[in-house]
TrEMBL record:
Keywords: DNA replication, DNA-binding, DNA-directed RNA polymerase, Magnesium, Metal-binding, Nucleotidyltransferase, Primosome, Transcription, Transferase, Zinc, Zinc-finger. It comes from Dinoroseobacter shibae (strain DSM 16493 / NCIMB 14021 / DFL 12). GO terms for molecular function: DNA binding; DNA-directed RNA polymerase activity; zinc ion binding. Its EC number is 2.7.7.101. One of its GO terms (biological process) is DNA replication, synthesis of primer. Gene3D superfamilies: 3.40.1360.10, DNA primase, catalytic core, N-terminal domain (3.90.980.10), Zinc finger, CHC2-type domain (3.90.580.10). Signal peptide: none annotated. The gene is dnaG. RNA polymerase that catalyzes the synthesis of short RNA molecules used as primers for DNA polymerase during DNA replication. This is DNA primase. Monomer. Interacts with DnaB. Contains an N-terminal zinc-binding domain, a central core domain that contains the primase activity, and a C-terminal DnaB-binding domain. It is an enzyme of class 2 (transferase). It holds the Pfam family DNAG_N.
Amino acid sequence: MSLPPGFLDELRSRVSMAQVAGRKLIWDMRKSQQGKGDMWAPCPFHQEKTASFHVDDRKGYYYCFGCHAKGDAISFVRETENVGFMEAVEILAAEAGMPMPARDPQAAAKADRRTQLSEVAEQAVQFFRLNLKTAAAAEARAYLVRRGLSEEAQARWEIGFAPDGWQHLWDHLRGKGVAEDLILDAGLAKPSRKEGGRPYDVFRNRIMFPIRDARGRAIAFGGRAMDPEDGAKYLNSPETELFDKSRVLFNHARAREAAGKSSPLIVAEGYMDVIALSEAGFAGAVAPLGTAVTEPQLELLWRISPEPVFALDGDRAGLQAGQRVVDLALPLITAGKSMRFCILPEKQDPDDVIRAGGAEAMATLLDQAKPMVELLWQRETAGKVFDSPERKAALGKALRQAVAKITDPTIKQHYGQEVKTRLDALFGYGPSKGRSGPAGPWRKRGQEGPTQTTRSSALVTADRDDLLQESVILATLCAHPGLIAEFESDLLDHRFGTEAFARMAARLASMMPDPDAPEISLEGTSCAQTLEAILSERHVTISPSLRPGCDPEVARMTVAEGFAKLAARTGWQREMEDAIEDFASVADEDLTWRLGQAAEAREAAGRISQTDTTEYDIADNGARISRDERNALDNLLNGISFAKGRSNGG
């Protein structure tokens, strides 16, 4: 419906932002200045202990300095109550004593229809509740007792029973004067396929669980079959004008309230799991309704909590369900939108865990919940052997493809770094073999490092060429920002030689400017100083890609070739570092001289390879290295062999 001009302004002027927010918050009175309408509290939209949520009551706005949520009283009600725009307006208008404008007749009829269907569903709730007390429901009551649900718990969850028969609910509602079309449209009965046949009840001989929306209105049901021969153990209402199961969470309203009081948001498999968790003190429990988690349900979860915890069965099916959630979530995650996974013992659900070890056992498992990246890693590595270059390459490719789904550039960068760290550790390229680790490539089994002469040799400083190449790449991308999108993955995947370069690469990847932009601005950032230092280097400024009027294609080729050469040299360095470790215990001045000769050969090879006629070999560890680098490495290995022979008395 449309609102007359000025209505919303009048509404905002009548309601107090502080009063509206105060219903959901506990103000930090040490930080707040009530007389000035300057109020502070922990944010209701993300988990925190400090008061970073600010309300300016005079201007009627709120802003969180932690998660950056912002808006007015209407948006606050929408977010905290999970209602639509017009429903939020109606709630605030009622509080302010403002009558709502006359609604469009068609919209009013639709809203009235939904209200009528919900009222019919409420009548069905009461019918099922009464039938749970009958003799016909004795077996259902016994089942609930075996599941540990007292009469009080059954009442809290409004659990009922649908008697065995074709028209018990239909006859009851028709006897109350409910129109046939309302019963059918509420999903409580289906028309008969027999000519002249009467409609029949959807739920028969089942324990019934009411499903309510975020505002607590009955909209559907879930039923557990009492007959073991029934084809569907659990059955939900059909989709109706009220009920879309892909957009509903069981126990949504209660869980949202509990999460607002710092209870963890737990996503379980079904109704009984949610009830068991809630009765054990984990009130922030929800469940999807018989289907895999959907994107709308993920958004609902993130509106309740920035990091819901999925409780998964420890069997294969449970893990597969978790991995499907990971695939769904990867393109959607941002800072403040993630999840964790609680892996339960095999063949146990939350109820089993709580029965065996109490709430403490469940709390311990929740505390051990794993991040998303752990499930991603487990899927690609569990039960697999990576004993060949091909298998290693396949693993890297699969992980890169998964990370590529992430759209948030900052999150993508962190995932890329985490995956790279895990791959290095798995394949033996950990800190003891990387150039950036605090111990460097020299440490092995507690041995001391090389002599000062060796440390200052050309071999140790050989990665200067990499830094020069990286300088040209970064400067070229700053001068030709339209290329950044094409080389985004290279910027995030390459391990730059200095922290300053790494920060600058991440900054460029996150900016992703307009491809037609003539230049890129880094003013006001630490990267500006890095760029200034890069451009002060003569070898950078003479690069063809940085000359005025440079053809963009020349710039593109410069960056592409630069990354290709860095990738080739990275493989050479890893094999070189492996070899270095092998002679750490026999290094002497004679060997140092030989290493210097090998390094000089490598540098000469690097100068020769400035032309694009490089021939490549495959190193022992599967990396691609140039023929010239291969020769330099052979000289190094000969030096190692000679030194070992001397140390053994040869």
